Amino acid sequence: MLNKMHLNTLLRPGFFAVLLGLMLTGCSEPAERTAYPLPEQTQDYRWTDIRERASSVLLTVFDTGEVKVPVSGVLDNLETYPGSEDKSRWVKVFAFHFNHPQYGDVLIDTGLDRRFQSGGQGSYRGVLAPFIVEDSRQQRGQNIGAQLKRAGISPNLIFLSHIHGDHTSGLPEMPQGARVIATAGESFHDYPLIMYNDHFDGVVQIEELDMAAGRAMGPFERVVDVFGDQTFFAIATPGHTAGNLSFLINSSEGWVLLTGDASHTRYGFDNNIIPGWAEDRNEAMRSLEALRTFAEKNPQITVIAGHEW
Ligand SMILES: [Zn+2]
After folding, report:
1. What's the gap in Å between 261 CA and the centre of ligand 1?
2. Domains observed in the chain
3. Residue 129 backbone phi and psi in degrees, to 5
4. pLDDT tens across 18-27, in order?
5. Tens digits of per-residue pLDDT, 135-165?
6. How wide is the angle at C-alpha 159 spanned by C-alphas 157 and 162, nearest 5°?
């Protein structure tokens, strides 16, 4: 209960300044950070060598539902976009899986949990949430937890392309003890009252992938061989966020390139249009160009944009 002294404290201008500061910058750190134990990076190979050592891992895509977002958020330039009269559009929210012979079940991003079945903002909270996620839709049993259970998958390792809510919203349905990995220094976006969620409540620690320890492999500036066996590569593609990651899976069924939100949409990828939501537009343009160059040089590759085939 508020007594007079508390009330006076609350009404002081300084308090409002602190509160406003907290609301605007208050990224409450949800989990302890520690370094992902990166295997030694081999220094003397090229993409052509890597293809010859393709592994038997197979990538599965889980479509966990859709969110309705402003078109201007996923496409920076709408001049040529055929649906430009639409202010909003539905995009899919994926999680990706492969089974690694040594590391077991690996998940990339986490999709949506079952709270998106009732539509609206799902597990998003805050006054700004309806402007980012205008609506959502998900069928019964489409949430990531239900799909993994049906497939008999229990992730040991969860790699996040970046720490945005639509990539972390499946975390509450992950098994306890699953390791969660994101780029070193990637900021956690959590703004009390404005835009927040509980996705990391059950996550004790985040393991940070040190992309600076990777090597330049044209056209990319920083590539990390995540397991040290050339099956799975993390590629630094900053711009949408400072630590956005794309991933390459070196499967004998063919290479799969996951762009992460370096390009939310296939349309943006094909037409060289960066996301509207970009922390650094110049970096976003460089990253998208590098991904497009890589895909052009490797025409057999399957490219999956952040939220679209
Ligand atoms: Zn994002």
Report:
1. 5
2. 30-35+45-304 (3.60.15.10)
3. -50, -45
4. 444 444 444 5
5. 999 999 999 999 999 999 999 999 999 999 9
6. 155
| Residue 35 vs residues 27, 96, 206, 209, 236: alpha-carbon distances, Å | 20, 23, 8, 7, 17
Tokens of 88: 């909003």
C-alpha 210 to ligand 1 mean position (Å): 20
- In angstroms, what is the span from residue 296 Cα to ligand 1's centroid? 24
Residues 6+ apart with CB under 8 A from 17: none
Distance CA 160, CA 195 (A): 19
Residues 111, 147: Cα–Cα separation, whole Å: 11
Query: What SS3 class is residue 208?
Result: strand
Q: How many angstroms does the Cα of residue 275 sit away from the middle of ligand 1?
A: 9
Low-confidence ranges of the chain (pLDDT < 70): 1-29, 84
Taking the centre of ligand 1 as the mean of its atom positions, its distance from the CA of residue 80, in whole angstroms, is 23
Supply 72's token pair.
């201007």
Report the DSSP beta bridge partners of residue 20: none
Taking a C-beta distance cutoff of 8 angstroms, is the pair 301, 251 a contact? Answer: no
How far from chain centre, in Å, is Cα 163? 6
Instruction: Give dist(CA 188, CA 138) in Å, integer.
Output: 26
